[in-house]
């Protein structure tokens, strides 16, 4: 008897966890498929199947542009931060020099920075450089959170690779840059995919800088565009459209996360837990 | 002139072998050292430009009378944005500045209580999730995948999703709670001053518990299986095993997860900005600073708030690292 009770209790807990995790997104999909007054009837199961909200949001002019902006910013941020981080991580993990520990601690400290603390100074810089209202301002600003994180994770990964792989190349007289590109890079694909994906998600989701440095509707990224979607009046919040837009920008992320599930978990924990 | 030992003919090779070996090695390490700094330079330059310089600039602006329209003409005014006593000349006077602004202290209180409550709930719930995910059962991989979904959803999207679910008239949350009998009439979750902060906490707990659970799970999986084996053979009650064995072993993982989450929660901006706009009950330090910087045209005052926020977070971090005796430095080097 107690075994049965325990088993049932355990699976009830599992069911609760799954429901807790997926119900809100399920409900967003369900809402996005409703049209007209059906929106204001509460249903737990799908009753309607109308793509009107999706057509509405995709044909409203700027939203497809916002998606494109987000893709451009996120991809550029990932490419630049990975390139800078791979070489830096090599220096931090394989070469002994004075002040290495302090440098790593500084990098970790920057990743904990409250973004608001640099907002005023960055804003002045962005305006001075003429980057206000451009995507460059975002690419530049996002380095503050993607770079420390990628450097940290790649350093941890590179440190754990055996010494032997480098020795042969050193004996052959290969330059450090060649060693990074020819010896380490081919071994690092798993770590690069993980950190790249995490950096992509962080850049895709960022809101504060995107809200501050861009004020032009067609230059905005997706999170700000969704936050500012509004109806004809204060009272008429277009929930159907908002949910359709939300589903559109979230589904690619969820697909990526599910495909790279294991790698993401190992990447997240590499950043946070002592191995 | 090189000194030559008696009896040993001074051949060229004898000299070269003696001198070249150490020089070759130090050449190599010097070359590696040089390339280390060449490799680090671009990254350090970008970090200095994107973090170091703007931080100094923000602190500088907090000591000036800068306004959004005239950043270049900012003049130094000392600590006036933080603290100022205005003497009215008739023996009375008034204090002004951030340190005497009740709206700022309200924001500090909101942020700190939000962080304390949500991180506590997330740690507890995350621990439960992690223990479940650590058990062997059919479909575990599926459950672990499901748990990642809230983490992957952008904060703005989760704020909007929950705003709709918490809608006072058409929200499904009120419908559920009324069916269960927990509430008798619909609640305006995000608008009602009493529930607004709880609305924010609910969304935050939903969104970040998976992150906590995964960090704690990583700690759990490092506990060697034979520990449990031994406890089982000794017939120790599972609850006792959990508190006496498991919890002390995963304590470092939990402490690190808590500091990561707390630092994130202390700078909360987007969730509160979107879920409960213009609500004094939930306004956080970051929202307060952003509003002053860009909406109220009090750029210097907003900079002062940003600077104080930075100091508050730095102070809490150092205090926590000291109290929890975290070994952050050892992990990287």
Automatic annotation (TrEMBL), chain A:
Residues 67-260 form the ABC transmembrane type-1 domain. It is a multi-pass membrane protein. InterPro entries: BP-dep_ABC_trans_perm (IPR050901), MetI-like (IPR000515), MetI-like_sf (IPR035906). Keywords: Cell membrane, Membrane, Transmembrane, Transmembrane helix, Transport. The chain crosses the membrane at residues 9-29, 67-90, 102-123, 135-158, 179-204, 237-260. One of its GO terms (biological process) is transmembrane transport. GO terms for cellular component: plasma membrane. It is found in: Cell membrane. Belongs to the binding-protein-dependent transport system permease family. This is Carbohydrate ABC transporter permease. The lineage of its organism: Bacteria, Pseudomonadati, Pseudomonadota, Alphaproteobacteria, Hyphomicrobiales.
UniProtKB/TrEMBL annotation, chain B:
InterPro entries: MetI-like (IPR000515), MetI-like_sf (IPR035906). It holds the Pfam family BPD_transp_1. The chain crosses the membrane at residues 33-56, 112-133, 145-165, 196-220, 241-263, 299-321. Signal peptide: none annotated. GO terms for cellular component: plasma membrane. Its main location: membrane. This is Sugar ABC transporter permease. It comes from Jiella flava.
């Amino acid at each position: 008897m107690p075994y049965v009770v325990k088993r049932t209790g355990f699976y009830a807990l599992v069911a609760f966890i799954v429901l807790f995790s997926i119900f809100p997104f399920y409900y967003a999909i369900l809402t996005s498929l409703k049209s007209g007054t059906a929106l204001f009837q509460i249903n737990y199961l799908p009753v309607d199947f109308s793509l009107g909200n999706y057509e509405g949001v995709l044909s409203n002019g700027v939203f497809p542009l916002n998606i494109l902006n987000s893709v451009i910013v996120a991809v550029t941020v990932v490419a630049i931060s990975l390139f800078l981080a791979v070489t830096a991580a090599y220096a931090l993990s394989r070469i002994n020099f004075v002040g290495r520990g302090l440098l790593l601690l500084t990098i970790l400290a920057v990743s904990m920075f409250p973004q608001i603390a640099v907002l005023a100074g960055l804003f002045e810089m962005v305006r001075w450089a003429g980057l206000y209202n451009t995507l460059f301002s975002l690419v530049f600003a996002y380095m503050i959170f993607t770079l420390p994180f990628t450097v940290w994770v790649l350093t941890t990964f590179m440190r754990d690779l055996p010494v032997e792989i480098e020795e042969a190349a050193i004996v052959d007289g290969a330059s450090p840059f060649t060693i990074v590109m020819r010896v380490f890079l081919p071994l690092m694909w798993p770590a690069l995919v993980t950190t790249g994906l995490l950096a992509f998600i962080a850049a895709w989701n960022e809101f504060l800088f995107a809200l501050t440095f861009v004020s032009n509707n067609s230059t905005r990224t997706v999170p700000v565009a969704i936050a500012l979607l509004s109806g004809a009046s204060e009272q008429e919040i277009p929930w159907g459209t908002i949910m359709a837009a939300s589903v559109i920008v979230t589904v690619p992320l969820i697909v990526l996360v599910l495909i790279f599930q294991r790698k993401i978990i190992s990447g997240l924990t590499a950043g946070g837990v002592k191995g | 002139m090189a000194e030559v030992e008696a009896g040993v003919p001074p051949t060229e090779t004898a000299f070269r072998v003696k001198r070249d070996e150490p020089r070759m090695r130090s050449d190599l390490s010097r070359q590696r050292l040089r390339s280390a700094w060449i490799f680090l330079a671009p990254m350090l330059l970008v970090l200095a430009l994107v973090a170091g310089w703007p931080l100094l600039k923000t602190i500088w602006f907090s000591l000036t009378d800068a306004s959004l329209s005239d950043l270049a003409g900012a003049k130094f005014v000392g600590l006036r944005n933080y603290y100022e006593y205005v003497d009215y000349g008739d023996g009375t006077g008034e204090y002004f500045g951030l340190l005497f602004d009740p709206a700022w202290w309200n924001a500090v209180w909101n942020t700190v209580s939000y962080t304390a409550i949500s991180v506590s709930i997330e740690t507890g719930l995350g621990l439960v999730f992690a223990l479940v995910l650590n058990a062997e059962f059919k479909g575990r991989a599926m459950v672990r995948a499901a748990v990642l979904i809230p983490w992957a959803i952008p904060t703005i999207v989760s704020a909007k999703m929950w705003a709709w679910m918490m809608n006072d008239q058409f929200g499904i949350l009120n419908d559920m709670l009324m069916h269960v009998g927990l509430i008798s009439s619909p609640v305006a979750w995000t608008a009602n001053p009493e529930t607004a902060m709880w609305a924010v906490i609910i969304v935050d707990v939903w969104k970040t518990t998976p992150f906590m659970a995964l960090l704690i799970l990583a700690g759990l999986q490092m506990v060697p299986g034979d520990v449990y084996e031994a406890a089982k053979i000794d017939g120790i009650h599972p609850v006792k095993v959990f508190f006496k064995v498991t919890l002390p072993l995963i304590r470092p993982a939990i402490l690190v997860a808590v500091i990561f989450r707390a630092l994130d929660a202390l700078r909360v901006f987007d969730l509160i900005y979107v879920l409960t706009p213009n609500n004094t009950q939930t306004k956080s330090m970051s929202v307060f600073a952003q509003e002053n910087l860009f909406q109220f045209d009090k750029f210097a005052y907003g900079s002062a708030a940003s600077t104080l926020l930075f100091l508050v977070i730095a102070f809490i971090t150092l205090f926590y690292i000291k109290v929890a005796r975290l070994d952050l430095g050892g992990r990287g080097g």
